Every structure is written in structure tokens, then in C-alpha cells.
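New here. Your pick:
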Amino acid sequence: MQLSSDIVDTAPRMAATVVLMRQAASDLEVFLLQRHRASDVLGGLYVFPGGKVDGADATAATQALLDQPLATLQQALNEPDLPPATAASLYVAALREAFEECGVLLAHNAQGGPVNPAEVAARVRDGEAFGSALAQLGLRLHTRAMHPWSRWITPRMPSLEMNKRFDTRFFVAAVPADQTARHDDFETTASVWLSPRAALARYWDGELQLAPPQVMTLAHLAAHTQVDSVLATARHQPPVGVLPAPFDQDGQRVICYPGDPRHPVAQRAWPGPTRLVFRHRRFEPEDGRFESLFS
């Protein structure tokens, strides 16, 4: 993991990410993908499925496949100034990226029944657009299965080497019991199911690399042991918006979050640390203790 002090002045690109979950015996697990090392965005790091919003995500034809009104989706994002069609495009992007990157299709047929992702995949492989494939098979995107969790905006100094900024909405969703998530062997080269705490333990031990938004999201999710608990929280709690504030102190990079004395937003966004410090080739709480990620 290489630090950068480069300033990126381009406008953030809209993007969407889905934290896919499943219930294990004693804890929930999340699905993490390793991005191809040649990628110019977080290459080699483990991330949740996601990507930028495409033009097709905002078309009326594609948004007609959503199973909730656009105004309802906009309200759930808790962004009153966001146009409903733009809000809908974020849902479409999240659902499309989950399908493209790991084969999970959150959709249902006209009767509300389950779908076969392989049918859509076959059409897409033959060159048909994602929205068109859904429409031809009479499917609708299951937005009710996915709930907004947070919003992350890349700061002008991204800290990790990247020449782009993103305005990313994080959603949470459970993987349907009859579907299997796996990496695509193209944009992503490995994948793993882990509990949030176990994922952070592997990160701490240097076994996998995570960007700060993933670290903070996993720390937040570690307070839950049940998928239903996360979904219930997401339904009843407005998503938190975060613009991290990075700075250098005593030769170390520090990223602070809402509630930190150095952050312009005084109210804390979540339990856990209000800042991460880059030491030992990782971002960690200021006191250097693993347990401080959760308290």
C-alpha cells in the first residue's frame, strides 16, 4: 500500500458499492473482492463489489425496471437535493456492478419470484446490455433488497495512489440463498467471505489490504452478528455522509472523520476511532490498538 500526497482537482465521479452479506452460524459474513493489481484504482486491495455510474444506469428504460418509485429511492438516500433520477441511477449502478463483478443478481420476475442469473449472464456475454437483458426476460431490479448505508467522498488528497475522486454510496444487501458470489477473474482476481472482525484481523496481520473506507465500514458492521440486524438498522437509520479530512502530522499521514477535533463536522458519524494513522504500511487507530477499531 503506497501513500500519495498528490492533489486531485477533478470533480468526484458518482459511484455505488454493495456490501453483500450472508449469515454464518455465529456471525454475519461480508463478501470481499481483490481488485486486479494492474487497476488504476485501488489495485491489489480488497473491496466490496461496486463501480462508477454508467450512462445506461440513468436511462428511463433501465430505471423503469426498478421495483420502487424513483422518489422513494431518493428519500432513502437522505439527500433532498439529489434529483430522483440521479438517485435511481445509483441503485441501478450498485445492482449492475454486483452482477458484473460477482454474479449476484438482486432481481425478481413479474410474479415476485426468484431469477436465474445465468440467463442474464448469457445474454450479456452475447453483447446485450444489462437493462435490455432484464427487460427481455421480464425481470425487475429488487431495490427493496438493498438499503443505503453510507456515502463516501474521496478528498482532494486521496492518500492512496489514484488519479480520480469518487462520490460513492454504500448499500447493504443479503445474497439470495440460491445464488453464489465469486470474483470475475477480470477486474477482480480473488474473493473471500469473512466476518467483519475476521476481515479486519487479516488486514491487521498483513494478509489482505484494505482502503480506509473499507476499514471503517467493517469496523462499523462488526457491531452486528446478524444480517437482519444490519438491514433493520439501514432501514431505520439515515445513511451517514463522510468527506475524510487527511493531513500530515509528525511525518505520518492522518485521516480524520466526523467527530474528530480536526474534522469540520463536529458530530460523530459512528462508534470507533475518529482518525486513522498510517503506520506499519496500514491505516490504524491513533493508539495503535486493534481493539480501538471497535470502541
